[in-house]
Amino acid sequence: MYRILTFFVFLIAFSGCYEEEILNVPVKEAPTPNEDLDVFIEENFTKEFNMAIRYRFVDRYVAPQQRVVPPRLEVVRPMLDFIQDFWIDPYLEVENGEEFFRDNVPPEIVLLGGLIYNFDGTVTLGTADAGAQITFTNVNAIDITDPDWVQLQLQTVYHEFAHTVHQRFKLPNAFETIASTGYTSAGSWFTLTDTDALERGFVSPYATSSPNEDFAETVAFYLFNQDFEEAILANEPDCQTPACVARNDGRELIREKVASISEHYQKVTGIKLEDLRAVIQNKLQ
Fold this sequence. Notes:
10 helices; 8 strands
């Protein structure tokens, strides 16, 4: 299982942000079945893409030490519309995208109402399981006008779906050598700041945890980040300090990664990543 954007905090810190009864919702609580919703899912996702949508929570979707909140029934259809608009449709609209999507779409999509609270005090914002399942969290807070909520969902799905590329076709040739000295480990990446990661040549601290996560994070940031060109790739002019030089050196490594990934995507999937980004960015405007 891949975890992205996991933050280490004490559980007590959340008591001031969430009502206590929310955290104590029984794990097995689920929305009341809805026949119209089930018909919609069957016609538009199960039959169309062989994709099961799990919105009635059962224990097997999370580990025993994790606690989650089921999605409210009224947010399921809007969330499915969001998934269709920002994940499925962009692939259907670009050359060779539909074939790749249908061949690689995970057979199971899980919707959770809140974040995943772990026994050790961490919070998991989104997960995937070897191309077989993608889990969306915080669905109850759906708000497509909230850039933070949108970023959470898009970073989750673009990151996790990018894993299918290296799982099926491996990483681009020598990708892991581009910024080889910058990798940390799965257990220490969270000690870095965004600036630390940039100076190392990575789009985020989590990207430093392994070449596979670096690949998936870079794809996700490239696709969803509206300021990717200016904020991440564009050099700062007139650098006069070592820190500024280090950031620009990191940007050069990221540019090299993006070029490598773009070439690899087109070679193994037939998809021009630039075209996919253009479609997504047009939808985000």
